[in-house]
Amino acid sequence: MPRSKAKKLSSLFSSAVKTATTKASSPAGDATPKHFVSSLDTSSPTASAFKFLKRCSVMSPKPSALSKKSTLPSLKLDAASDSEDSTKQLSEEISHILCGGALDSSADLQGTDDEHSLKKVLEIPWFSKLSHHDISVQRKDVSRARKQKWIYKSSHGNRFNRLVTMCGQKLGTEATMQVFVKLGRETGIKEYNALIRICIEKAMTSNDEDIALEQTHKVFRLFESMREQGFQIEEAAYGPFLMYLIQMGLVQEFHFFCEVFRKWNPRLISRLGYYEMLLWIGVNNEEKIREICNYIALDDGEDKSNLRDNCLLALCESDRKTELLQLLEIVDITKLSRPDYVANIFKSFGRLLLESFAEKFFVAFKTCDCEAENISKFIFSYVVSIPNLVVEDVVSKFKNFHAKLEVAPSSTTYEELITYCCDSLEVHAALDLVDEMCEVGLTLSLEALHSVLHATEASFDFNLVHRIYSVICHHGMKPNNETFRIMINMCAKMKDFKGAYSMLEDLKKINLTPTAGMYNAIMAGYFQKKNTYAALMVLKQMKLDDVKPDSQTYSYLISHCDCEEDIIKYYEELKCFGVVITKQIFMSLINAYATCGQFEKAKQVLSDKGIPVKNLNEIKSVLVSALASHGQMSDALDLYEEIKQAGCSLESKALKILIEHFQSDGELGRLLQLLKELKGLEHWVDGCCRVILYCVQYKHLSNLRMN
Fold first, then answer.
1. Which of 130, 159, 181, 398 could form a cystine bridge with 150, CB 3.0-4.6 A?
2. Of 152, 215, 187, 194, which is closest to residue 65 (Cα–Cα)?
3. Residue-wise over 588-617: b if at least 16 C-beta within 10 A, else e?
4. What is the pTM of this model?
5. What segment(s) does the record annotate as region Disordered (predicted)?
6. 517 and 553 in contact (C-beta within 8 Å)?
């Protein structure tokens, strides 16, 4: 939202709360300075907030999140209805969301009917007619069947967050909360936080101040609902919202909500000081910044340690050099309560190139008998924050400071420095640190080892895999299956199949079970080398070792079939093995049929009822690519037009293949149109090169310059 819109929003807020608020005095015994609390009267914060929202004309009748009289306008479904039709309708709507479609998508784009979609994706019993005791019993009965689902009870939090986000974006926050009720799940803190995040994102991306006000209203309603359910308003909930207000420079709104949060939870006062400091820094109010600094530096007998810590943290994160140095002349940072706050101070020293101050406080912490592990953490925080310092110099400073202070690096800081090197793809430096770490008797974690392996892959230094494996063996590390999979994959990429098979044998010696992914890496390497016989021997070896092929295995096999009989054979075989048919399988079928000249059968793959709606457009793009690559440009263009008419867009890879395979003169206009549809700079540059080649071939250089 532009700053002008933020000012207008602030003006609307001001007029809304002007008559509903009065000056408030701090409660007796409250050591809070007046500039850390709002001057607005929130003796009834809820009432004041609702007055503000109602005056802004965004207030609607308040439906409780758990009220049976509430409505679901986005779903066009009465929440009070317990009829089977109502339940089925809600099931179909949610099922459609989880399949990746929009609520108004056409049946043609769904790829499967609602009944099949519901059965496959949302096999969850409905609890609307059960008592709470029955619900508990019913949940236990179905928990095992739902264990592998990514709906509601999945152990993977990010998957559940995606579900909440999808529902919130397509249904709205209130409807989403009632959907959870209908599904027999109470709205918890994770759900609330996800919905609050959605409202904030909508407010930030909108250029309409009325929409921003409405989203602010919804956030407040969510906070209220959390309190009604007995949840504390923690930083994970209020923090992003206050940062939004700070980013927009909405000072009065910030104070209004800070006072509401303080009334609800008085323990938040110190942490709110952190956000207040960020606010004044954000709006460049130097007077307020000095006022806060003077207050926390004043020794008047009050316990201000937590408040001081938070304000110092805000100054450090904002790199306010002058104020930071002034406070450090007064404040003894060796007495700060949290080591991570101190680490942020040292990060600021690094960014501001204050090495003399860093050394001074390193010595101070050493003198006051601070734990060696914390000192090592402070050193790491400082050296990695110094700008324009190459990895080699960062490592050198890290070692020099430890030697000067006679402090040994901890395993944690060693691993953090190793990860820092890996992030810069300085794998040799990372491996040197691994050797050094192991020599002093420290143990490297698997996570750090995997970061080294991933950096090795990303830097294409595949030959380093042998050095890494030697370190693992020499120092008695305990790799897991993922460790071996990555190493085998690197061996296969550099065509060291002997080394890959040797690692498979070593894997068995330490009682680890080979996985399909390990064999797939070797198979892919052989296929890249055009050695089909050796690739098929990998499949044979998998069966001998009692390793079940997976969807990736059959994707490789089908992709490299050169006759229809082999395609059918492997497809039937994977079904016999009970292998899940993924989008890669469908893509492989399309490419294999196209390679064999069976273009109609390639097209028929799209009619498979098992294709998930969310993958349909991607699979169609593969078909466009396959048709264009094999000379079927007319069919490819027809499918391209069909995709556009359905309101979808072709994948960038498919667009580039279309551009590349135009082999007739007079198509420059269409090529330029395809070029405009490419997404991402890398794809666009690649597409430009192909258009230039076309222009050179057909002598259209003057037209190209004009366009």
1. 159
2. 187
3. bbbbbbbbbeebebbbebbeeeebbbebbb
4. 0.69
5. 20-42
6. no
Coil, helix or strand at residue 681: helix
SS3 assignment, position 20: helix
* 329 DSSP 8-state letter: T
- Which pair of tokens denotes residue 231? 């949840």
- How far apart CA 259 and CA 279 sit, in angstroms, is 15
Do residues 483 and 510 touch, judged by C-beta distance below 8 A? no
Cβ-proximal residues to 31 (8 Å cutoff; 6+ apart), any chain: 302, 303, 304
Could you tell me which of 285, 404, 233, 238 has the C-alpha nearest to residue 35?
A: 285
Closest CA to 118 of 86, 93, 144: 93
- Residue 259 in 3-state DSSP? helix
pLDDT in tens, 552-562: 999 999 999 98
pLDDT in tens, 357-405: 999 999 999 998 889 999 999 999 999 999 999 999 999 999 999 999 9
Residues 549, 576 contacting (CB under 8 angstroms)? no
- Which range among 184-198, 514-528, 688-702 has the greatest average pLDDT? 514-528
Burial of 78 (0-12, 13-18, 19+ CB in 10 A): middle
Q: Which residue spans within 5-134 are E strands per DSSP?
A: 71-72, 77-78
Whose tokens are 């222009």? That residue is 695
Please give the structure tokens belonging to residue 112: 């499967």
* Distance, CA of 571 to CA of 79 (rounded, Å): 45
| Burial of 345 from C-beta contacts in 10 A (0-12 / 13-18 / 19+) | buried
Query: Which residues pair with residue 77 across a beta bridge?
Result: 72
Distance CA 601, CA 621 (A): 16
Q: CB–CB of 150/163 below 8 Å? A: yes
CA distance 310 to 271: 6
